Amino acid sequence: MCGESRVKTSLEYLKKSVKVLKNFFDAVDLEAYPLEENEYRELFAAGVDGLTIYQETYDENLYKVLHTKGAKADCKYRLETCERAGKANYRNLNVGALLGLKDFVSEVFFAGIHAQYLRKKFPHAEVGMSFPRLRPAEGGFQPKTTITDMQLVQAICAVRLFINRINITVSTRESSELRNNIIPFGITKMSAGSSTEVGGYVKRVAQVEVLSKGQFTINDVASVASVKDMIYKAGYQPVMKDMF
Asked: What pLDDT is recorded for position 160?
């Protein structure tokens, strides 16, 4: 995961990072700014297996209001990102809308249509969908709408019924109470032990101070071990790696 800056995180930087990570992990997915198809092919050759990218909003007019300049301002280019990665043979493609920017019904609808399109066009790939809700962040941006827990569950169930075979991710944006009880609705992936600080994982491992604020506030701070234990107690088996 990185920001939108090619200067700070160039293609070469990403390739070097992936090659290091492949020494420790069987599968490496990318969450970064949109790239060209040939660049996704270079990263695939370096060891990248999948891509996660959020359209943030599927309303083109609202998108233009929120992204006024820079590379990210091109709504269509961002929308076609997973398609370029699919053509580069990526095995995991994950999409989603940032819930709270607009009414959740239309955003989840279009995200579901997007996921279904990718499934049909790239049958070799596992397609997934995330449901990130806006969290408190630096700058004090206030969401247009508030998505309740009940509405989030409604959205997840609707997508599961619409696309039977789809990966559904719930992140540490959500509370431990919600995550502990939502697995039976068809959740297939959960994050744990996350950090949104620049250098946050270095801080945790090396026990050094990192003077940066997170991109947004984490809701569930449970460790990987405790989340695994929760999944076992719920009657499920946590799987730490994909088998291709």
From this structure: 94
CATH of the domain at 17: 3.20.20.70
193 in Cβ contact with 224 (< 8 Å): yes
pLDDT for 239 equals: 81
Considering only CA atoms, give the Rg of the chain: 18
Angle (CA) 28 53 91, round 5°: 45
Confirm whether 188 is domain-assigned.
yes
Amino acid found at 126: E
User: pLDDT category, 213, cuts 50, 70, 90?
Assistant: low
Q: What pTM, to 2 d.p., does this model score?
A: 0.82
pLDDT over threshold 60, residue 137: no
Residue 152 lies in a domain: yes
169, containing H or E segment? strand 167-170
The residue that leads in pLDDT, 140 or 11, is 11
Q: What does the alpha-carbon distance between residue 182 and residue 111 come to, in Å, rounded to a whole number? A: 20
DSSP secondary structure letters along 7-70: TTS-HHHHHHHHHHHTTT-S-EEE--S---HHHHHHHHHHTEEEEE---B-S-HHHHHHH--SS
Strand pairing category for 28-30 and 48-52:
parallel
241 inside domain: no
User: In which domain, by residue range, is 116 found?
Assistant: 11-233
